[in-house]
C-alpha cells in the first residue's frame, strides 16, 4: 500500500508544472501576436522548439511514468514530436530533396507566418496535454494490489461471449473475402494503395480488442496474478484467435496492423495480471519499432535492400502530419471553419452494422472532413492512407480554444485511467475499453481525426453492452 501511494506523493514537485505553464503562456502570447500583427515578439530558430519539446517530454516521462512506464504517453509523445517537426527532424537531413507522397511536399505551405502559427499551435497542444496529464495524476481511492470487480461482472458467461466474438470475426473475414478485400490484404505491389490494402480491417481489429477486454475481465475476476496462472487459465479459443490473426497480418501487406492486435493484449496483461518490468517494456518498444520500420519498408514489396533504408523511409507513416497541420491552419483561417459539421455523420459509424445503412439512407457524405480537405488541397495521392493531423483537425473544427480544451481534457482522462487501473485497481468496462483502444492506437493518434476514436469506441462498447446483457446470468453468483 505504502509503495503504491508513494508512486504519486513523491512526484508532487511544482517545478516542472510551473515550467510548462511558463512555456505555455509564452507560446500563447506568440500565437496572439502572430494573429494580430503577423509577427512573433520572440524570434527563435525552429530547432529551439524541437529541443524544448524533447526535453519537456522526457522530463515528464521520467517524473511521472518511470515506475509504470507502459502508458499512452510513452508512445504518443515521441511520435507527436516527430510528426510535428518532421521537416526539421527528417526532411532537413535529406536537404528537402525528396518529392514526397504524391505531390504533398511540393505543394506544402511555405508562407513563414502560416508555418510559424501552425508550429505555435502544436507547441501549445503539447503543453496543455502534459498539463492535463499532470492534473489527472492523482489518486482518488486507496491503492490496491488486487482487482475487486462489481458483482455484475462476476456472473457473466465470458466463454460464451468469446465464442460469439470469434463467430463475428469469422463472418467479417468471410465478408471481406467475398467482396475482394481479402486478396488486397496480401498484395505487395505498388499498384495497391495503402488505404485499399487495409480496407475492412478496422472491424477485425475491433473484434480482437473486444475479445481482449472480455478475456482479461474474466481473468481479473478469477484473481489471476502471475504468468503461470495466466497460461493455465487463459481461454484457449481467445489465445488461438489472437495468434492466428497476428500471424495472418504479419504475413500480409498490413504488418503494422499486428500492433493493434498485440498491444491491447500486452497492456491488458500489465494491468490485470502482472505489471511488466520497464526493461521488458523498452525491449518490446524496440521490437515494435522494428516491426513498424519493416512494415513501412516492405509496404510496396516483400523484399528490402540497404539502399531503401533512410530516415524518411522508416518514418514515412508520419511524413504528412506537419504539412497537414500547416494546411489546415491556413485553410481554417481563410474562412473555412468546420464547426463539427460532419460529427453526426461520423458517429453513425459507431452503430454496429446499422450505421452505414443509416448513413447511406440519409445521403450523407464526409467530404468536408479534414482528411479529404488535405488530400485535395495538397494534391496528395488518395492512396497514401497517411490520414490527417490531429492538431490540425482540432483547429479546423473550432480553432485554438477547442485545441486547448480537448487536449487538456484528453490528457487528464488518460492520466486518471492510468492511475485508476495501475494503482487503485478500480474496474469500469467503458474505461477499460477506452484505455486499451487509445493506448494501442497511441502511435497513430497524431494523424487521426479527433472524432475517429469516438466512433470506434462507440462501436465496440455497444457490442459489449449487448453481449453482457445477453450472457449475464444471475444464478452464476
UniProtKB/TrEMBL annotation:
Gene Ontology molecular-function annotations: ligase activity
Transmembrane intervals: 15-36, 42-62, 69-87, 120-137, 158-178, 237-252, 258-273, 280-297, 394-415, 427-446, 452-471
Keywords per UniProt: Ligase, Membrane, Transmembrane, Transmembrane helix
Keyword Ligase assigned: yes
NCBIfam families: glyco_rpt_poly
Name of the protein: Lipid A core-O-antigen ligase and related enzymes
Record organism: Bacteroides thetaiotaomicron
Organism lineage string: Bacteria, Pseudomonadati, Bacteroidota, Bacteroidia, Bacteroidales
UniProt gene name: wzy
Amino acid at each position: 500500500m505504502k509503495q503504491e501511494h508513494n508512486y504519486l506523493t513523491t512526484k508532487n514537485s511544482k517545478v516542472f508544472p510551473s515550467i510548462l505553464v511558463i512555456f505555455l503562456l509564452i507560446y500563447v502570447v506568440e500565437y496572439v501576436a502572430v494573429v494580430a500583427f503577423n509577427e512573433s515578439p520572440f524570434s527563435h530558430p525552429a530547432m529551439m522548439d524541437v529541443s524544448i519539446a524533447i526535453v519537456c517530454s522526457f522530463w515528464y516521462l521520467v517524473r511521472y511514468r518511470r515506475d509504470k512506464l507502459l502508458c499512452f504517453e510513452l508512445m504518443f509523445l515521441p511520435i507527436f514530436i516527430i510528426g510535428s517537426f518532421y521537416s526539421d527532424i527528417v526532411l532537413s537531413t535529406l536537404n528537402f530533396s525528396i518529392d514526397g507522397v504524391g505531390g504533398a511536399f511540393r505543394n506544402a505551405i511555405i508562407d513563414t507566418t502560416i508555418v510559424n502559427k501552425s508550429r505555435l499551435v502544436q507547441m501549445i497542444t503539447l503543453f496543455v496535454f502534459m498539463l492535463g496529464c499532470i492534473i489527472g495524476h492523482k489518486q482518488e481511492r486507496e491503492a490496491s494490489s488486487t482487482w475487486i470487480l462489481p458483482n455484475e461482472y462476476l456472473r457473466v458467461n465470458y466463454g460464451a461471449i468469446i465464442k460469439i466474438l470469434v463467430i463475428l470475426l469469422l463472418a467479417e473475414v468471410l465478408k471481406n473475402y467475398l467482396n475482394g478485400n481479402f486478396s488486397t490484404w496480401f498484395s505487395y505491389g505498388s499498384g495497391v494503395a495503402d488505404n485499399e490494402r487495409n480496407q475492412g480491417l478496422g472491424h477485425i481489429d475491433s473484434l480482437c480488442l473486444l475479445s481482449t477486454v472480455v478475456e482479461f475481465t474474466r481473468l481479473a475476476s478469477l484473481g489471476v496474478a502471475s504468468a503461470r496462472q495466466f497460461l493455465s487459465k487463459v481461454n484457449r479459443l481467445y489465445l488461438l484467435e489472437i495468434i492466428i490473426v497476428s500471424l495472418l497480418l504479419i504475413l500480409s501487406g498490413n504488418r503494422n496492423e499486428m500492433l493493434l492486435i498485440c498491444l491491447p493484449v500486452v497492456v491488458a496483461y500489465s494491468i490485470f495480471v502482472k505489471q511488466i518490468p520497464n526493461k521488458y517494456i523498452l525491449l518490446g518498444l524496440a521490437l515494435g519499432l522494428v516491426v513498424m520500420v519493416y512494415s513501412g519498408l516492405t509496404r510496396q514489396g516483400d523484399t528490402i535492400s540497404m539502399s531503401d533504408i533512410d530516415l524518411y523511409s522508416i518514418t514515412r507513416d508520419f511524413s504528412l502530419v506537419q504539412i497537414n497541420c500547416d494546411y489546415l491552419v491556413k485553410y481554417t483561417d481563410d474562412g473555412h471553419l468546420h464547426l463539427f459539421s460532419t460529427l453526426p455523420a461520423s458517429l453513425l459509424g459507431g452503430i454496429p452494422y446499422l450505421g452505414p445503412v443509416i448513413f447511406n439512407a440519409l445521403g450523407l457524405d464526409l467530404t468536408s472532413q479534414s482528411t479529404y480537405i488535405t488530400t485535395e488541397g495538397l494534391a496528395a495521392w488518395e492512396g497514401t492512407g497517411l490520414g490527417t493531423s490531429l492538431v490540425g483537425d482540432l483547429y479546423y473544427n473550432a480553432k485554438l480554444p477547442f485545441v486547448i480544451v480537448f487536449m487538456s481534457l484528453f490528457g487528464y482522462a488518460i492520466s486518471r485511467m492510468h492511475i485508476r487501473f495501475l494503482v487503485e485497481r478500480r474496474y469500469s468496462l467503458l474505461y477499460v475499453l477506452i484505455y486499451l483502444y487509445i493506448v494501442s492506437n497511441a502511435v497513430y493518434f497524431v494523424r487521426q481525426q479527433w472524432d475517429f476514436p469516438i466512433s470506434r469506441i462507440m462501436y465496440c462498447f455497444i457490442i459489449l453492452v449487448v453481449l453482457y446483457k445477453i450472457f449475464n446470468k444471475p444464478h452464476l453468483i
